[in-house]
Amino acid sequence: xxxxxxxxxxxxxxxxxxxxxxxxxxxxxxxxxxxxxxxxxxxxxxxxxxxxxxxxxxxxxxxxxxxxxxxxxxxxxxxxxxxxxxxxxxxxxxxxxxxxxxxxxxxxxxxxxxxxxxxxxxxxxxxxxxxxxxxxxxxxxxxxxxxxxxxxxxxxxxxxxxxxxxxxxxxxxxxxxxxxxxxxxxxxxxxxxxxxxxxxxxxxxxxxxxxxxxxxxxxxxxxxxxxxxxxxxxxxxxxxxxxxxxxxxxxxxxxxxxxxxxxxxxxxxxxxxxxxxxxxxxxxxxxxxxxxxxxxxxxxxxxxxxxxxxxxxxxxxxxxxxxxxxxxxxxxxxxxxxxxxxxxxxxxxxxxxxxxxxxxxxxxxxxxxxxxxxxxxxxxxxxxxxxxxxxxxxxxxxxxxxxxxxxxxxxxxxxxxxxxxxxxxxxxxxxxxxxxxxxxxxxxxxxxxxxxxxxxxxxxxxxxxxxxxxxxxxxxxxxxxxxxxxxxxxxxxxxxxxxxxxxxxxxxxxxxxxxxxxxxxxxxxxxxxxxxxxxxxxxxxxxxxxxxxxxxxxxxxxxxxxxxxxxxxxxxxxxxxxxxxxxxxxxxxxxxxxxx
Length: 596
Prior knowledge:
single chain, 596 residues, alpha+beta, DNA Primase, Chain A, DNA primase DNAg catalytic core, N-terminal domain, 5 domains, five-stranded antiparallel sheet, five-stranded mixed sheet, 27 helices, globular
């Protein structure tokens, strides 16, 4: 949903972030800034910093951060509009634009027509399954354990072999050929419209409110060489990345169970329903997205991921984990057991209900799943991969609550990383010693999403820090640098320029809201990086153009070094040891000549 940026700006201008956060948690003044126990993780020492001057907050342990609206959105589990309205209320600010009901939106007449068309088709498909032609697919479904109760709940149907008659039926109900095309089922051959799902079993796909938006059709005949599944294309109704199969049912069941399972496909979701677990939704073969994450977060229950046990499914789990790093979602992962089968449907078919229940209840924490994954795969292919794994686990090791837990993690980490337990212990002990100076910042430095910064990226970040507070830095960037090498820094700089040219000033709090309102694919990552940079304190207070020029000179020098390094690495690629030694010797001679 798009928001009026001027309304967001007005609300934030009238709000004081310290006052807003103080309404929810205790805030302590520390010099010119404020600190608090972070409410978004189990915080024992105040790790949340609140900047009154910049009107933003940031936790240096769990990574949560943003402006006043973001805090209320996260704390009260509200959508963006309702959180903005709450901030305005707490600030004593009123505006007619805030009276609009966020959950009531006038529908486009075309969307209403398409929904009516697809609803009629959905009823027709279910009718077809109970006709004489539908007896063969019905027999197949019964053999798969999909009884009448399941068929009705999941709105399973059948598409007549005569696909032309399906389109004619919809026309008889008053729907245009254009509408039939736009719901994604029309196949056109010589101006004759036919149902592309003809002769297949139909699985209805609903949005989070239960409105049918698309279909997935499945072959059922042994001699059928067509694709196993045919999914609706992207349509005005159906956006695959926004939808979890069966979520509209699962959201009502999740509160009863206090958990929800996320599985791979339709048949896996139905398999769980068959054994009495109705709190389940499925990805439908698509990658896990931020939209899926938002849907699951809204449930406020434990998320249990159970993707396929094959390599692709386990890699899918790892991608999910990467997306969950900065979220406050409570989740666990089903431990794979390839001896039982690839997925839940196969396990139920081969081994029965009890085995599937046992499998689903063998749950691992994120940390244990990562250990299990790397122990059973060869994914750590380089020294850099192994070092990144160590960096990932440093915050967890620094916060272990018992010696036994610490030793257990050290042993597991040593086993999967192939570093010695002693070397890992020494690294952790060094981090603990460094922590004594400023615990929050040391933990932040080892936070999983932090990447190693070379001089090149440090110099770019230095300019970016001042662009977030100084108009002269923005002008210097435009006139001299133009673009950054680092992709995230480049995206942030672009956002800063857009904001600056529209508002003729720079305001971090309003900037983050404008980025969030645009709803770009990696806006969370960009906002987090902006907050991290904004809260840094290791930069000189008063700088001038000469300072920017000296940093720019460093960028240019480091860029040249980087390109030379890349050239050398390309030359050494796939060479024998002798050839590498010769190339390195020649390269070093060349570098000496260049310097002299």
